[in-house]
Amino acid sequence: MAALLDAILQCITGAESDTRPTYDEKEALITPPQPRTTEEVAAQVVNAIINAEKGGADLKRTLDNIVGEYGWTEKVAEWVLAKMENALQQAEKLQGPIKKAYDKACEAAVAAEGFVQEHPVFCTVIALGVLIIVAPWVLEVLGFAELGPIEGSFAAAWQARYAGYVPKGSLFSFFQRLGMVWH
């Protein structure tokens, strides 16, 4: 029906309707963002790591481009870890820099195992030293800060389970004290 009315209108006015598509120059430059799930982002990150021909700054730039506006969130890190575990379980398929890194890690693990058995006290001292260096960072990542649990963190969720009444001497209060003192 619309085509019939359009044909009659063209006969009366003598003008033809323009059926060519119009382009807006500003709209052509804007590409709509394609939303991706954190699982898709992580899969692309792991794929880039596994298929990288060389590591270093190029790989870092590639990974930053993949993550983009999503940022390195906790969920992205969890998915990357899970997907990397799956990839490393199929080590025979690895190639390039990831294969070299995997082989070096396996060699170091075998060498370290013998060293640990021969020098257990020395390894305990080293492990405690690393723990002292890393513990403040781990506590902060978990949400145990100087002024109390960080909003939206694991520590805040844990404290919410106590409904504000944290028992004295509990594991939560121990970690919170460490978070307040170690900073």
TrEMBL record:
Presence of the UniProt keyword Ribonucleoprotein in the record: no
Pfam families with a match to the protein in the record: Ifi-6-16
Main localization, broad class: membrane
Membrane topology designation: Multi-pass membrane protein
Swiss-Prot/TrEMBL keywords: Membrane, Transmembrane, Transmembrane helix
Compartments reported by the entry: Membrane
InterPro entries, per the entry: IFI6/IFI27-like, IFI6/IFI27-like_sf
The UniProt record lists the keyword Transmembrane: yes
Family designation: Belongs to the IFI6/IFI27 family.
Protein's UniProt name: Uncharacterized protein
Organism for this UniProt entry: Bimuria novae-zelandiae CBS 107.79
